[in-house]
Amino acid sequence: MVKQVVKEESLCNSIRGAAGKTLLLFLYIFLFFLKKHFRNLLRILKVGISTQHKRVIFKKKNNATTWQEILEGCLRREARAQRQLFERYANFAKNVCLRYAQNEAEAEEIASDGFLKVFDKIEKYDCTQPFEGWLKRIMINTAIDYYRRNLHKINWSDLDVASQVPYSDSFYKDDYLMNITADEIMVFVQRLPVSYRTVFSLSVVEGYNHNEIAEMLGISESASRSNLSKAKAKLQSWISAYVVQQNEITHKHE
Fold it and tell me: Is residue 20 part of a domain?
């Protein structure tokens, strides 16, 4: 009986030893495999992370704020939406104000005042109409308000006979202005006295008649006509001299 028990224990020990050796062998094989393919596993993980990152970026692009969302945000007086609207139309507004300003700094100041009015009156905007037209009118009115605050500094000419100022309308209709860029013309417009520049921009650029301009600026119609005539005469003189000068420079280098 004792011998039988000893044999059974010896057999169990042999089995345990064999199992342990087998387990150890499998462990060695696993470690060898892991070491051999470790770099490949890392590469797979990196690809997975990169793919996930790309999906996140793609989703962000799809979540871009639409114009309707910007408008609704402005109606709720959200600062983020107001900033987005400003960034979208800042250059457009500045270009409108440049027609009435003496320089870029002044145009930016007028545009900033205009955007404050836009944000304050945004609920009055008719969504069925182009936003640019509504914004443009606000910028023009802001420019006029800007100069009304300095009205005591402006010398509004009020001549009953505007034809006393000599200028040729054909100058603005022929090919003479084809030799000068729009940016160069704007420089000359900005050199005009504020009264000439304002009336010129309202009449020639925006298309208002003298009755409308007089009402907007609080002056007489004759003053509006006079200032427009003087503005055209000055611009004709400056641009003519400039074009002649540029032609002379061009001929010298030929």
Answer: no
